[in-house]
Design brief:
With 308 residues, the chain is an alpha+beta fold. The protein is built from 13 helices and 9 strands. It folds into 4 domains: 71 residues, no CATH class; 69 residues, no CATH class; 80 residues, no CATH class; 54 residues, no CATH class. The chain has a 5-stranded antiparallel sheet, with no helix packed on it.
Length: 308
């Protein structure tokens, strides 16, 4: 039996196909990315794809070409820490010795390698865990803690930071690339100055003033500066990030996108389904009540309304 795959890239602004690759069905999706990028008439600013492309080699290729990766990670299923358990972020990596330090200062050394995922496992000595006062908050009584690190860990963190960054940072990065093309050092310096101070502190009015004051003899760059300044001025109230964090709200789009997939797509976009607006709204109302733990409350309020 013959089988094949088609790989497309599409310019999302102009809505045209920019590259096509046809491969045997057994070919890995991620292997086609360099060929697709080589066919692009212009260098894209951002590459969007599903998680089949979210592997280290794709992130590394995009980073090498100066293209932002809007691709969710493709990783093996792993257990999330239970409430009250220490997350991986509590462990500090020390590159000089290639070890992790736990919150109690004990070393976790490299003990295993997974070729399929190109990642390493780090574990402490069992004797260090046995007497640790944080053991119950760190691992089970029958095992020691394992921390995983990928060979392309820095590249993965680079991709994840972009994917989970607030929308305002992405707009600033676009400006930085226009102001300092082909100079990543100056782009990062400009971002550090304008992101850390006005944007991340919620001082959007100051940021708008700074952008309007930047001179440029390039008409395209000047127009981009004006457009982005207007954008920040128009959306200022949605970018009070410190205020939102104090209210324990998320400022990235990843959580919202995952919520839409969990609540809407997994229920309404199954094979062969067709919905009216009224029917879809009814099902989603029930689904939201169920996922929020208010399903019984809904029926109690409905019975009370019908009794009245």
């Amino acid at each position: 039996m013959l089988a094949y795959k088609q790989h497309f890239t599409v310019d999302s602004h102009r809505r045209v196909v920019t590259a096509v690759e046809v491969t045997p069905a057994a070919a890995q999706d991620a292997e086609q990315v360099p060929r697709l990028l080589d066919q692009q008439p212009l260098r894209p600013q951002e590459f969007c794809a599903d998680s089949h492309y979210g592997v280290p080699k794709v992130y590394a290729e995009l980073r090498r070409r100066g293209i932002w990766a809007a691709i969710p990670r493709c990783s093996p299923q792993s257990r999330r820490p239970k409430p009250g358990r220490l997350s991986t972020a509590a462990f500090q990596y020390v590159p000089e010795g290639d070890v992790y330090l736990c919150p109690q200062g004990q070393e976790l050394r490299r003990v295993a390698y997974e070729a399929r995922w190109d990642r390493y496992h780090y574990r402490p000595r069992e004797s260090d865990c046995r007497s640790c006062p944080l053991r119950l908050a760190c691992c089970t009584l029958k095992a020691v803690r394992t921390v995983i690190r990928y060979s392309e860990q820095e590249t993965l963190e680079w991709a994840e930071a972009y994917l989970t960054s607030p929308q305002g940072r992405q707009h600033l990065w676009e400006l930085a690339r226009r102001l300092y093309p082909n100079d990543e050092g100056k782009q990062r310096g400009w971002m550090k100055l304008h992101q850390k101070r006005p944007l991340d502190r919620g001082k959007i009015e100051r940021l708008v003033g700074v952008l309007r004051a930047i001179p440029s003899r390039n008409p395209e760059v000047a127009e981009k500066l004006r457009t982005e300044a207007d954008y920040f001025e128009r959306t200022a109230e949605r970018m009070r990030y410190p205020k939102f964090r104090r209210q324990h709200l998320f400022v990235g789009s990843g959580v919202i996108e995952a919520g839409c997939k969990t609540v809407v797509a997994s229920r309404l976009k199954r094979s062969g389904m067709f919905w009216t607006v009224r029917g879809a709204n009814a099902i989603l109302a029930l689904r939201c009540a169920y996922l929020n733990g208010r399903f019984e409350d809904y029926w109690e309020s409905r019975r009370a309304a019908m009794a009245a």
